[in-house]
Amino acid sequence: MPSTKLSKPCPRLVLHLPDWRSDDPFDIICDCCYSGVGGVLLQHGKPIAFESRKMITAELNYPPAELEMLAVVHCCRKILCLIEGKRVRLFTDHKPNVNFAMQIMPTRRHARWIDLLQSFNLEWRYTPGKSNIANPLSRSCCGHTETNQPCYTSHACSEDSQSILLVTGACSCHA
Q1: Where does the pLDDT of residue 158 fall: very low under 50, low under 70, confident under 90, or very high at 90 and above?
Q2: Can you tell me the distance from the alpha carbon of 20 to that of 78, in angstroms, rounded to the nearest whole number?
Q3: Which residues, 6+ apart, have CB-to-CB distance to 33 below 8 Å?
Q4: Overall average pLDDT of the 119-124 stretch
Q5: What is the mean pLDDT of the chain?
Q6: Is 167 among the domain residues?
Q7: pTM score
Q8: SS3 82
Q9: Which residues 6+ apart lie within 8 Å of 13 measured at CB?
């Protein structure tokens, strides 16, 4: 059983209200792994909203590029009311997705996703996976996936950057 003690206390997570009067763009940082997808919405470097979920069985068969796009599409759908009509910088750690909308012959799924994403004012940016702060949102806390109940024992805390305390995963091993 993993230890729940933190070597260094993490600062308390505080969600901020969006600044609607500002012309500064929102930032969406998305990530996925083979068990879930997640993302964070930021403005001025401060968290506005978090979103994550486990993948359904059919999504587990998607290739890696589609999994990363699934994270983007899922986050955009969930925070639609916050980003509609606003300029948004979308950060992904999968470089081919930066040019996702330029496909010559997209599949039906890709065409639906392209249609949805074109309704936003998105500026795609690549960021390496190590600097992606949305990683903990998509990771399972302990590798168990028996139930869809969240596991509240895993926290992300780093000493070299601003820490974000996240609850992620789905298991019943710590009940």
Answers
A1: very low
A2: 18
A3: 67, 138, 139, 140
A4: 91
A5: 74
A6: no
A7: 0.69
A8: helix
A9: 47, 164, 165, 166
Q: Which two tokens stand for residue 124?
A: 């795609």
The span from the first CA to the last CA of the chain, in angstroms, equals: 11
Q: Does a structural domain hold residue 36? A: yes
Residues in the chain, overall count: 175
Count of helix runs (H) and strand runs (E) in the chain: 4, 5
Domain assignment present for 69: yes
Total domains, the chain:
1
Give the domain CATH number at 51: 3.30.420.10
Alpha-carbon distance values, 138 to 21, 23, 34, 60, 87 (Å): 31, 30, 8, 13, 25
**How far is 80 from 52, CA to CA, in rounded Å?**
15
C-alpha closest to that of 158 among 5, 2, 4, 8? 8
Instruction: Select from 18, 36, 8 the least CA-distant residue to 167.
Output: 36
Q: Looking at residue 131, what is its pLDDT?
A: 60
Assigned domain for 15 exists: no
